[in-house]
């Protein structure tokens, strides 16, 4: 039975989807004004594992993740690079998709662009105004947070706490400092027609409306980075509470930050490492191992040393599996089914709020056994156990080898059997060169 920590209730709960056998999930995607960095990659990897696991245990999963392609930051960046906004967002959407695939994550089933839902957003905002949940000012339309009795439910703050430290000067006719923008009136950059003047939607409205349009009802899981909890997710919930009378999702999941020297990796701080640069030096699957090697709710303090460490860990796993694969190929042994106790242990840890660090202890145990095992039949079962687990985590290496490698390996074994150690050493170094030893 799968249990998940729900940020909305702050409890670990038994996961029960709204519709039997089906899971709907939405993860807030990128604002495409720059190349994807390692911090952005963490939810891309983790929620891919969530989807893979849900499918593994028999659910049909509909996974949606949006692309925010209209935003102030996009307008600024486009000006800076002397590009049209569409050119800029196409460029970085492509980088996001390419890097998602490089990191061995599947693309979401649907990646809606915010600009494709403008009429729906306008109509949704109209509904909110009609019901008095929003009001119009010269600068745009604002959500009236006092209309949502649950406001603060996700970030666990009440209105007084929320208003502490907020500047009390209310600009442009805003009624409450916490009221947030649903529609910003502006003719700068990409702007759309609306009854309130030319402008563009607020980011919180984009996600709320895309959820409403695509799923048409409450969904099972809504995810994102922990930094999105407030105000973004709080405000998505607030709009949905008053518009649709539910909390948008039953389960809210938040992935911890990825810090560098204990400081959040962010474009504005300028301490970012890009995925496209990382993969020049490291195997993307080793980075994926690093990400899943920490519990998803814990922060990761990234450093180059840490990456080197996980790279070595990944090499160990890969080497043991490669050798097992070669041994099985030489003896023409088919993969066996996994060993039940390892697979059961794997599921038990995954069901415990995706405790992947514990799953990795199972993987390392299998690798240890593989390195000792001589019986090819047992090797085949161990290999399959590791493959089953690592495929769900998206870190299973892919092996291909030529006939030449097989010949070398056979010759090496023969030389050893004949106690021709000089020849065996030569063959061994050839195999090592090819990465097989
Ligand atoms: Zn969102």
Describe the protein in words:
The protein is of the alpha/beta class and 437 residues long. It has two domains: 253 residues, Rossmann fold, CATH 3.40.50.620; 131 residues, Four Helix Bundle (Hemerythrin (Met), subunit A), CATH 1.20.120. It is 49% helix and 13% strand. It is built from 15 helices and 13 strands. The strands form four sheets. It has a four-stranded parallel β-sheet with strand order 4-3-9-10, covered by helices on one side. A four-stranded antiparallel β-sheet has the order 5-6-7-8. Strands 12-11-13 form a three-stranded mixed β-sheet. It binds zinc ion. Zinc ion binds next to α7.
Features:
437 residues; alpha/beta; Rossmann fold; Four Helix Bundle (Hemerythrin (Met), subunit A); four-stranded antiparallel sheet
CATH 2nd-level architecture of the largest domain:
3-Layer(aba) Sandwich
* Oligomeric state of this protein: single chain
Bound molecules: zinc ion
Strand order within the widest sheet? 4-3-9-10
CATH class of the largest domain: Alpha Beta
Tally the beta strands: 13
Major β-sheet profile: 4 strands, parallel
What is the compact description of this entry?
The chain is an alpha/beta fold and 437 residues long. It has 15 helices and 13 strands. The strands form 4 sheets. It has a 4-stranded parallel β-sheet, covered by helices on one side. A 4-stranded antiparallel β-sheet has the order 5-6-7-8. Strands 12-11-13 form a 3-stranded mixed β-sheet.
């Amino acid at each position: 039975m799968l249990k998940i920590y729900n940020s909305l209730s702050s409890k670990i709960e038994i996961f029960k989807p709204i519709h039997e056998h089906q899971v709907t999930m939405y993860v807030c995607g990128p604002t495409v004004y720059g190349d994807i960095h390692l911090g952005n990659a963490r939810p891309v990897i983790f929620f891919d594992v969530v989807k893979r696991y849900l499918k593994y245990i028999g659910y049909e999963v509909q996974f949606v993740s949006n692309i925010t392609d209209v935003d102030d930051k996009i307008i600024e960046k486009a000006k800076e690079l002397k590009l049209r906004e569409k050119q800029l967002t196409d460029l970085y959407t492509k980088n996001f998709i390419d890097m998602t695939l490089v990191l061995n994550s599947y693309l979401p089933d649907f990646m809606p662009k915010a600009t494709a839902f403008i009429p729906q957003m306008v109509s949704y905002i109209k509904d909110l105004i009609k019901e008095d949940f929003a009001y119009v000012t010269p600068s745009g339309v604002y959500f009236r947070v006092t209309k949502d009795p649950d406001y603060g439910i996700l970030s666990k703050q009440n209105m007084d706490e929320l208003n502490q430290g907020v500047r009390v000067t209310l600009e442009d006719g805003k009624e409450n400092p916490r009221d947030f923008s649903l529609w910003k009136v502006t003719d700068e950059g990409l702007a759309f027609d609306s009854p309130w003047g030319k402008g563009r939607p607020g980011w919180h409205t984009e996600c709320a409306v895309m959820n409403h349009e695509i799923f048409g009802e409450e969904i099972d899981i809504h995810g994102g980075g922990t930094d999105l909890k407030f105000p973004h997710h709080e405000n998505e919930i607030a709009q949905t509470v008053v518009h649709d009378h539910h909390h948008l999702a039953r389960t809210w999941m938040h992935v911890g930050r990825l810090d560098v020297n204990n400081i959040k990796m962010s474009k504005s701080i300028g301490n970012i490492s890009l995925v496209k640069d990382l993969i020049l030096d490291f195997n993307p699957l080793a980075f994926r191992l690093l990400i899943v090697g920490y519990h998803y709710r814990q922060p990761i303090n990234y450093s180059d040393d840490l990456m080197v460490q996980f790279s070595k860990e990944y090499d160990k796993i890969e080497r043991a599996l490669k050798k097992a694969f070669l041994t099985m190929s030489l003896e023409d042994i088919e993969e066996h089914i996994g060993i039940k106790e390892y697979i059961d242990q794997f599921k038990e840890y995954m069901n415990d709020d995706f405790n992947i660090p514990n799953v990795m202890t199972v993987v390392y145990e299998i690798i240890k056994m593989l390195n000792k095992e001589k019986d090819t039949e047992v090797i085949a079962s161990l290999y399959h156990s590791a493959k089953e687990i690592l495929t769900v985590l998206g870190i299973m290496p892919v092996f291909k080898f030529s006939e030449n490698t097989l010949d070398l390996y056979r010759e090496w074994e023969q030389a050893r059997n004949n106690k021709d150690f000089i020849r065996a050493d030569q063959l061994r170094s050839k195999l090592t060169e090819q990465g097989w030893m």
